[in-house]
Amino acid sequence: MEGLLWLAFTLVLSVLPSLLFLGLWRGLMALRDDELVQRLDAEHFPETTIAPRPTFLGKDIEAVLSIRGPRGGSECPNCGAQSASGVDYCEQCLGSVE
């Protein structure tokens, strides 16, 4: 009799946390689909649109946005690092590029 009671107690303790978790999960899913939540979501978080890609950059965006490399860059006379075109100071040593 004592072994049967111990087995029942062990089964309850091993199954009960899973059942409680599943109940919590079902309750949270019911709250997620609640009308109040949907209404608050619509009021405080209106649907947004994604901004279009800027057209002033042109079609060759890689050439426009390139910072490093041989395309238009200059070499620093102090450390020899490549600098972006149109800059006055080197990124590496902060020396004057001109």
Structural description of this entry:
With 98 residues, the protein is mostly helical. The protein has helices at 2-32, 35-44, 61-65; strands at residues 74-75, 82-83. Strands 1-2 form a two-stranded antiparallel sheet. The protein is elongated and about 95 Å long. The chain starts with a helix and ends in a 15-residue tail after the last strand.
Short description:
Helix content is 47%, strand content 4%. The protein has 98 residues and is mainly alpha-helical. Strands 1-2 form a two-stranded antiparallel ribbon.
Using brief descriptors, characterize the structure shown.
mainly alpha; 2 domains; elongated; transmembrane; 98 residues; two-stranded antiparallel sheet; membrane; Zinc ribbon domain-containing protein
Count of DSSP E strands?
Answer: 2
Poorly predicted tracts of residues: none
Task: Determine the fraction of residues in helical runs and give it as a percent range.
Answer: 40-55%
Q: What's the rounded overall pLDDT mean?
A: 79
Q: Order of strands across the biggest sheet? A: 1-2
Biggest sheet layout: 2 strands, antiparallel
What structural class should be given to the helix and strand makeup?
mainly alpha
The string of secondary-structure elements, in order, is: HHHEE
Distance between the termini: 95 Å
Name the overall outline. elongated
- Gyration radius from CA atoms, angstroms: 32 Å
Structurally, how many domains make up the residues? Answer: 2
Tally of individual helices: 3
Instruction: State which percent range the strand residues make up.
Output: under 5%
